[in-house]
């Protein structure tokens, strides 16, 4: 009755979440992306029409970029495939809604921000 457990590989694969989370830390936060989208909307520009500088370190020389998801792609076809994905559609929906929470909101909720003591009354 010895031998290896047949489910060992499945468990090991399931617990390997480090690589999935690695890219998460390199992305901009929701509030930074939202501010960038608002700035482009105020200027009257579209998110797609943004001219990008050539950067050899980025995939696709930095020319294929999704502003909503803050991702670069290797080619136009990969970018178009991303636009049809569920993850992108959810992200666009989140970014088109109300403004996401900012660091200032978090500090005020924790009681670390500027105090709001109401109106200043005249003292005698």
TrEMBL record:
- Any one GO cellular component localisation term in the record: nucleus
- On the tree of life, the source organism's domain of life is Eukaryota
Could you tell me which Pfam families the record lists for this protein?
zf-C2H2_jaz
What Gene Ontology molecular function terms does this protein carry? nucleic acid binding; ribonucleoprotein complex binding; zinc ion binding
* A single GO BP: ribosome biogenesis
UniProt keyword Nucleus, yes or no:
yes
Q: Which residues form the C2H2-type domain?
A: 66-88
InterPro entries named in the record: Matrin/U1-like-C_Znf_C2H2, Znf_C2H2_jaz, Znf_C2H2_sf, Znf_C2H2_type
Which UniProt keywords are given for this protein, alphabetically ordered?
Cytoplasm, Metal-binding, Nucleus, Ribosome biogenesis, Zinc, Zinc-finger
> Where is this gene product found?
Cytoplasm; Nucleus
Give the family this protein belongs to, as stated in its UniProt record: Belongs to the ZNF593/BUD20 C2H2-type zinc-finger protein family.
* Name recorded for this polypeptide: C2H2-type domain-containing protein
Source species taxonomy: Eukaryota, Viridiplantae, Streptophyta, Embryophyta, Tracheophyta
């Amino acid at each position: 009755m010895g031998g290896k457990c047949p489910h060992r590989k499945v468990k090991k694969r399931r617990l390997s979440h480090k690589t999935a989370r690695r890219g998460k830390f390199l992305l901009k936060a929701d509030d930074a992306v939202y501010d960038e989208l608002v700035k482009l909307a105020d200027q009257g520009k579209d998110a797609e029409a943004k001219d990008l500088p050539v950067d050899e370190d980025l995939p696709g020389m930095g020319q294929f970029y999704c502003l909503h998801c803050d991702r670069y792609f290797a080619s136009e076809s990969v970018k178009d495939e991303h636009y049809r994905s569920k993850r992108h559609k959810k992200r666009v929906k989140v970014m088109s809604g109300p403004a996401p929470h900012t660091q200032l909101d978090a500090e005020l909720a924790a009681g670390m921000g500027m105090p709001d003591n109401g109106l200043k009354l005249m003292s005698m």
